[in-house]
Hints:
Structural class: mainly beta
Number of helices: 2
Shape: elongated
Helix content: under 10%
Oligomer: single chain
Amino acid sequence: VYSGVALDGPAALGAGETAAYGLSPQASAEGYEVKVAQVDASPAGEGAETGSGGLTFDTTGGYPVIQSAVVRSGGAAFHLAHPDYTSPDQTFTLERSFVAQPGSLLTFYSRLRASDEGQWATVEVSPDGGARWQSVWQQQGQFGTIEGSFSQKSIDLSAFAGRHLKVRFNYMAKVGYFYEGTSASYGWYVDDIAFTALPEITSASVSAVGKGEPAYHHLAGATDEALFVRALTQGGALPWADAFNVAVGANDYASWAVRQEVAAGLAAGSLADPGGDFDGDGIPQAVEFALAPMGLDPAVATAGALPVHRREGGDFVYDFTIDASRVGVAVAALASRDLVNWHGVADSGKPAGFELVLLADGPGSWETWRARVPISSSATFFRLSVTVP
């Protein structure tokens, strides 16, 4: 397993939430790629029972690769054969991507009918999406030997740990004698393909991260995800590192509080009160929920991360960043001349020239806003109002 690049960040997020993940540096890296995937830890097997969907056949002669005459179980099995002496390799490929790890096993049932020394039943894997194939199991044909039943074969794929693999079954035509024909008496039959400790990527997207970028910003989807990272070098892409699993849940305050308690090892209920201040930094937990992109943390004193107003030209400005994906929270920028009467930008009684401007939409669900008011002879005060039901 290649482990030179690792992700550092939260293992649980709310749906639609954005979080920053640090990448451990790799000296030879020219950049990085992060794959975001939905992963099925217990993928379904393949027994040819559901037709040709998700399969690619590369055969000649027009014979049916999925047939029902010779099966180990169910009503169908795969059949590969050489129609004549000029036949090339005959293959069927599972159009699926699996994540190899220590202990990964590929098992299947095999039955080699009439064949000879030039015919090889072969299982291959590709770590690069099908560009190149590597044999992981072979059985050579033998003149006069016809297997009368199916037998289980097991392939240990631990050596490919960290790789994302495609699988292909190849009835190879090599130099030597071989039987031609596609009837039930000839060729190789395969049935009941199964996967153990070999998770399947059901959908995925890949993002580039530049060498000098400080972090990868991940926008969580609606379901649990797995993040994979690899370094890109002058010699090519290194293998994907182990999966960084991210549990995805609801994005309201109560769910966020539970995730923070688990991450910090706090007792259940420690952060349940939005108006509470567990870490004693003077910031209510509702504010830390709303302004989390600024580095506010409910379990660690982080008052220094609060936004601070400043003078810019002829204005006082106040910048703050929220996660717009939050559910059930309202954030309002307010201004006052007297600390008694507070007004939003839409109020008729607001200080003259008070406005709110979107500075940055992103990364992900983050939004950075600027509250601005012209400097005048009267004092001006800013504040943020955060409301959580």
